[in-house]
Amino acid sequence: MIVLERRPAPSTAWQGLSPVLAVALTLVAGGLMFAALGNDPFAALRAIFWDPLFGEFAFFFRGQLLIKAAPLILIAVGLALGFRAGVWNIGAEGQYIVGALAGAAAGLAFYPADSRLILPMMIAAGAAGGIAWAMIPALLRVRFGTNEILVSLMLVYVAENLLASAAVGWLRNPDAVGFPGSRDLSRWGSSANPELIAGTGAHWGVAAALFAVVAAHVLLTRHITGFHIRLTGAAPRAAAFAGVNGGRLIVFCFAVSGGLAGMAGLFEVTGPAGQISIDFASGYGFTAIIVAFLGRLHPIGILLAGLLMALTYVGGDNAATSLGLPVAAISAFQGMLLFFLLAVDVLTHFRLRWRPRGVAA
Amino acid sequence: MNGIDPALLIAALMVASTPILLAALGEMVVERAGVLNLGVEGMMIVGAVSGFIAAYGAGNAWAGFGAAILAGAALALIFGVLTQGLVSNQVATGLALTLFGLGLASLLGQGWVGLKGPGLGRMDLGPLADLPFLGRAVFRHDLVVYLSLGLVIVLNLFLFRSRAGLVLRSVGENAASAHALGYPVRAIRLAAIGFGGACAGLGGAYLSIVRVPQWSDGMTAGAGWIALAIVVFGAWRPGRVLVGAYLFGGISVLQLNLQAAGAELPIELLSASPYLVTILVLVLISRRRHRGGEAPADLGRPFHASA
Fold first, then answer.
1. Are A338 and B99 a contacting pair at CB < 8 A?
2. Assign residue A115 a region: left if phi > 0, alpha if psi is -120 to 50, beta otherwise?
3. If you average pLDDT over every residue of chain B, what do you get?
4. CATH (one of 1.10.3470, 1.20.140, 3.20.20, 3.30.60) for A38-325
5. Can you give the pTM of this predicted structure?
6. Cβ neighbours, 10 Å, residue B247
7. CA-wise closest residue to B20 among B188, B243, B249
8. By CB atoms within 10 Å of each CB, which of A36, B9, B130, B265 scores lowest?
9. How far apart are CA A85 and CA A79, in angstroms?
10. CATH classification of B6-289 is 1.10.3470, yes or no?
11. ipTM summary value
């Protein structure tokens, strides 16, 4: 019988290797899933992971890669801080929506003014919107001990309704007769979040994502707050005895993740999406949870994981058009990746030992 | 409100509450065993799609319910193997289950959107159905509604009046002690997780086969998460879970009726009301709970018998 024996300390080798092994296992299982759907598994995997990077139309897909990766990384970096401390913000999708709404509303209040200050002001408003939405679960948790997982998640559905009312009501483009959706923010000079380097897809959100990765890394390794986060996650009781203010930490983690999610929404609405529309919410807030875990809750790991996850989105679109692979197959594939990651993680904390049945431990 | 018939409102409430009630009862048993499974939403939606496909294929609603029970339990067992066998983080694994379930359901459901299922006839309760007000309100439902109510009673007896229920609760309160007494903690937890998945799958199938009745992508729309909230609201007791589920069913039916009746409120606010009320109730509950814990003591804590 195989038994698990707890390692005295987590294995550093497996900490780095387990995401790689999980990706490999997911490729095998995903290939089997694609085969079950009636596709050639090798053609499907090639269309997802190879063609967007090195294929004939790679020049188009490479730009898409950073566009998808930026919001994922931005959101995941914030979520990971909380996850490390045992603070579960599951509602990043809602904070992303509200950030986009707040930023777009703040910008449109000045339409059609022409000023370079409008986009920075909108970014600040987007972050503020995300923070405000995240403060609801954070403060309820600190003040009343309400479960933050459920509250932050419920607020996603509230935010979706808020988005619908904005798209058909209070943010609707007054010049578009009968059509839902706001003005095109990417075409208004003052609010546009353009491609900074032609052909790369890099917009201000990409710059912000890179900055967030570096800042989070510095915070976790060099700052006392980062130490408190790591301490609370590793040993909550020890942290409490050491004088860490748990409530303040919860508010901090929610504020950072909400603010980053709100900014991600603002960069999206002023750039790739262009406008507030009913289908603006795209699930980045949920996929970012997978990205955070795939990156081992480590900022630099998240950078790599975000790029990989963006590749599955871009490659999934490619496989959908070239092979007719269902788009939904990609989200099942991403979910599978998280399963394998969690399963392989056992090797970090435990050693597998063979022990004959019936021998007392 | 004019134009809203109270008897029909109660009848609609019972139908609307049944999926949430089933899922919440299942999750309650899981949490009583000390396991927090956040994958209810994922198991419900996979139950909804597989149930619909099986019911449509066989032309029989019961084939659908059977398939959904199996699908929900199978999905739950992935969670069980990961959390019990491989000692993975329960919160993260539950979330993974939901994300995977949503993707899998939308994949399986392609080509089934908008089709009409076989439906499920109401139970013949003879003279009861002809009672003046009650007949129309509570005695003209299908069998699953009454099964879910029966499950409330059965679970109450099981948890608080049977030895097996006592063992299950002891595993949830203090897994180490239960292990020391010789109870198979992991096997008991696995069984509870499987039962929870079966209930969630059945609840999902009730949505797609009876309540709506068709398949559409993302149709559970947070029902699984509301079920999780109801377990907290119900203080891990079947009777109170029933009250919670019917309360939320009532709110969602009422807001739909208000929308149809053209109330002077924004539609988006009405659609968001079940979620807002859930948050409000969670806050009120957590204030009350500050005085004394009701949750199983070992809820969410992984258990690994150290050698």
1. yes
2. beta
3. 87
4. 1.10.3470
5. 0.89
6. 15
7. B249
8. A36
9. 10
10. yes
11. 0.86
